[in-house]
Design a protein that fits this description.
Largest sheet: none
Helix content: over 70%
Shape: elongated
Number of domains: 1
Distance between the termini: 42 Å
Radius of gyration: 16 Å
Number of helices: 5
Structural class: mainly alpha
Amino acid sequence: MKARQVTILHALLFGGFTLASLGSTLVALFFPEPFPGRYLVFSMGMLFVLVLVSWRVAGGCPLTTYENTLREKERLGSGYSGGFLDHYAFQWFGITIPRGWSTVALVLLFVLSITVGTVSY
């Protein structure tokens, strides 16, 4: 796999997680009967634990680490520091995001989903 492919995969997964998190939160809020909040709490709680463990093992986001490893193999000095969203928001859209914001955004998405799932439980 090449660094560019990992970048695309990473963007799709982060975008998909964001849409799924916000979408499931809205569904749990507006349609609590067919979508019990306990499923949202359980799934987001398990996903949160999985993310924490993978970050601990990989020393950060595994996909960011993998992408940077591939970038360095393809061209020395082409890796970046910081988070994926922090880096590419500026490169793709010209938006400067404070360092570490992507981690905060990810945690907020988890907290939002778990909180709404708990309230609608």
